[in-house]
Please model this.
Amino acid sequence: MFNSVVVILFGIIIGSFLNVCIYRIPKGESIVYPGSHCMTCKHPLNRLDLVPVLSFLFLKGRCRYCNQKIPSRYMAIELLTGLLYGVVYLKFGLSLELIMYATFIALLIVLTMIDSDHMLLPTKIILFGAGLGIVFRSVQAVLYHDVRFFIYPIVAAFIGYGLFYVTFYLAKLLLKKEGLGFGDVRLIGMLAIYLSVRLTFLTIFLASILASLYGLVLLYIKKKSEPFPFGPFINMGAIIALFYGESILIWYLRLAGL
Model:
């Protein structure tokens, strides 16, 4: 119980840092300098203003210096990160996998929010995530004395990237426009390093269903078709696959009588 609470609190703190990344990276700003400040009045924030969740509640969602409303999504991201870190701990315990998948979750949250805000999946974040994934997989291979921990994720990455690469150009050829962004192609390649081949396929399947449902709702509300980012749905599919993928696959195989 104590370990779970510590992991969740750590996740909330990380969520506060992720908010900085989400806001600054698309603007090309440093995530280190300058220090945290109000987005409206630019006043530097002191330590009491930076306590995750509690500062937002204590200040009633407003800046201490200019009284401008602070978006509630900052607190929501902190809480979401803490919650997901808690689930990762429950699934993997205190292990290398806890660190690896906590990092994975952090990357997905940042990419999801940036894509939602700007329809952009920054290549440098994806490459950074892929690099970290390769490092983690290499450590697993050495720690567990099994090279398959390294080889299988690399194969999965090539398959996932290759599948979306072909899909990207087929869509351009047949539809005469981009059916998905090339950032989505890179994203699948990165995700596959952290997931197995079959969980990568499950991620794509789940993402397609979620995106289709969202598209239908959007069409019903706005009465017209509008483009929307696919990245958030890929990431949601990846999180579902990470936590429940094996159970979903077993359920499906039993349903199919296989």
